[in-house]
Specification:
2 domains, binds zinc ion, mainly alpha
Length: about 150
C-alpha cells in the first residue's frame, strides 16, 4: 500500500473542520432570525445574509477538500489507508463515542471487497504430469520441470 502524504491527511482534517464550521454558520442564521422576530426594531443589524452563504460554501469546499484528502487528487486512485486513518482518529473517536469508527468501518468493508476481488484473479494451473499447482504465467512446472 502506498503511503499517504501528511499533506493529504491534513487536507482531510481541514476539510472536516471547514464542514463543521460551515454547518454551525449555516444553522446559526435560524437562531438570529428567531431573535430578530422577538425584537424587530432592536439595535441589532438583523441577520447577516452572508453567514448562511459562507456556511454553505464552507461545507461544500470542506467536503471537496476532505474528498481530496481521502482519495487523492483525481486520477491517482490512491485511497486513504483505513487502518492508518483509524489510528489517527483514535483520540477524536474516543471523544465522539465510536461514531468515526463506523465511518472508517465502511471504508474497511470497501477495502475488503476490493481485496477479495484481487485474490480471485490469481489463477493456478495444474501440472498435467505431477498435478502440482503453478502460477498461471509459469512456463514450466516448479515441481517436475515439465512444460505446462
Ligand atoms: Zn509437474
Amino acid at each position: 500500500m502506498a503511503k499517504i502524504s501528511q499533506e493529504r491527511k491534513t487536507a482531510y482534517y481541514i476539510g472536516m473542520g471547514m464542514m463543521g464550521i460551515g454547518f454551525i454558520l449555516f444553522i446559526s442564521v435560524f437562531f438570529s432570525a428567531a431573535s430578530l422576530m422577538n425584537d424587530p426594531f432592536g439595535s441589532s443589524m438583523g441577520p447577516s445574509f452572508e453567514s448562511p452563504v459562507i456556511g454553505m460554501v464552507l461545507m461544500i469546499v470542506g467536503s471537496i477538500i476532505m474528498n481530496i484528502g481521502a482519495k487523492g487528487t483525481a486520477g491517482s486512485g490512491l485511497l486513504l489507508d483505513p487502518k492508518k486513518a483509524r489510528e489517527d482518529m483514535k483520540p477524536f473517536n474516543e471523544a465522539k463515542g465510536g461514531m468515526i469508527n463506523d465511518v472508517i468501518g465502511n471504508i474497511d468493508i470497501v477495502d475488503k471487497m476490493t481485496n477479495s476481488c484481487e485474490a480471485r484473479e490469481v489463477i493456478k494451473v495444474k501440472c498435467r504430469s505431477c498435478g502440482s499447482l503453478n502460477d498461471e504465467d509459469a512456463r514450466f512446472c516448479k515441481s517436475c520441470g515439465k512444460e505446462l
